[in-house]
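Severity: low
Component: inverse-folding endpoint
Summary: output formatting inconsistent between runs
Steps to reproduce: submit the following structure tokens with default settings.
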């Protein structure tokens, strides 16, 4: 799930609740083998296929899940739907998966408690630390199924939780991924890992910053746009940005939140501006810091930083040129290149094609990236 999907789900849920229309909440509860979406992905289905937000697959199951879920939850509050790959499918009329795995989707009759939970999850996606959305099921009273949902954030004690559930949560948080498992003879749980918010800080509000803002927004990132030019850093030019500031560089950067999950891209197209900016960034936390332009420009900026020598550690992690070598020089292409490099850095990947041997493995080595001279 990403921030944008959750906002759309909450908006649809509020509209349906206001007019008393029924809905179902579907959650990807377990997966064996490949699945298009991660565990914990959710979908809200209204009374028609046109009123569906979110997803539990790549689009091949959503209409069936909403339609079948609505019919089944008229009699009971929750059901579990199972789906197999095409080679293993055996249920007439039930769509199969195209990714070669099998999944289970929990479908519940939507209630006001679900709306409150979605709001909690949406708030968790705005946090700068990790959270866990826990979904427990109890099938001891079949055919009825009991479902309990809990949102855990940092600082919330887990002493009252059952030992197996506590272990499952701790494993999900340490591995930084959603997992599912048994927590009793007839009880199971899915722990949806919600990572800290990714923040993108774009320093420079030129035309090439616009597609970068749009692309980052589509990924659910928090986007800050800053520029000393008031005519450039405006809501009209960056309608999808979360934070826009037009001020001198010191005040602008002071107004922005920086975390260990922040990516910073300086794209002012002005060496004097960049020479002023870099020392202001040197001591701030960030997962990625890059400056637009060729390598010799980065070297010049390091040697001519406005307030003196930049720390060696900062010099070594400063990217310039920024982005992966995709061979595309348009503003939109450069945005894709930059975002791709940031994603590789955040996820600890080396950004090589997945079809190459070992490309899909979760390698532990430091990310290795190609770069291109962007102007």
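Observed output (run 2 of 3):
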């Amino acid at each position: 799930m990403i921030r944008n999907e959750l906002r759309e789900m909450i908006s649809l849920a509020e509209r349906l609740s206001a007019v008393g229309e029924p809905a179902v909440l579907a959650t990807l509860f377990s997966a064996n083998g490949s699945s298009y979406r991660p565990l914990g992905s959710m979908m809200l289905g209204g009374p028609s296929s046109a009123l569906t937000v979110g997803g539990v697959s790549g689009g091949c199951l959503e209409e069936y899940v909403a339609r079948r879920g609505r019919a089944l939850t008229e009699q009971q509050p929750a059901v579990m739907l199972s789906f197999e790959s095409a080679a293993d499918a055996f249920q007439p009329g039930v769509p199969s998966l195209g990714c070669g795995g099998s999944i289970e989707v929990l479908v519940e009759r939507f209630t006001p408690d679900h709306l409150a939970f979605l709001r909690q999850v949406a708030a968790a996606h705005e946090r700068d630390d990790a959270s866990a959305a826990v979904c427990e099921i109890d099938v001891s009273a079949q055919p009825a199924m009991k479902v309990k949902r809990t949102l855990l954030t940092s600082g919330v004690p887990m002493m009252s939780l059952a030992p197996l559930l506590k272990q499952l949560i701790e494993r999900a948080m340490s591995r930084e991924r959603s997992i599912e498992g048994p927590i009793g003879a007839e009880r199971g749980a899915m722990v949806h890992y919600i990572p800290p918010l990714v923040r993108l800080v774009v320093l420079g509000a030129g035309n090439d910053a616009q597609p970068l803002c749009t692309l980052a927004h589509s990924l659910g990132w928090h986007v800050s746009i800053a520029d000393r030019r008031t005519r450039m850093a405006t809501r009209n030019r960056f309608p999808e940005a979360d934070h826009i500031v037009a001020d001198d560089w010191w005040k602008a950067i002071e107004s922005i939140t920086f975390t260990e999950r922040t990516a910073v891209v300086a794209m002012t197209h002005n060496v004097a501006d960049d020479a002023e900016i870099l020392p202001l960034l040197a001591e701030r936390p960030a997962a990625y810091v890059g400056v637009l332009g060729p390598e010799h420009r980065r070297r010049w900026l390091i040697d001519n930083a406005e307030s003196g020598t930049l720390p060696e550690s900062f010099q070594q992690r400063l990217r310039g040129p920024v982005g992966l070598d995709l061979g595309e020089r348009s503003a939109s292409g450069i945005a894709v290149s930059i975002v791709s490099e940031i994603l590789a850095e955040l996820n600890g990947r080396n950004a090589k094609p997945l079809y190459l041997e070992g490309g899909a493995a979760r390698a532990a080595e430091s990310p290795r990236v190609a770069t291109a001279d962007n102007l």
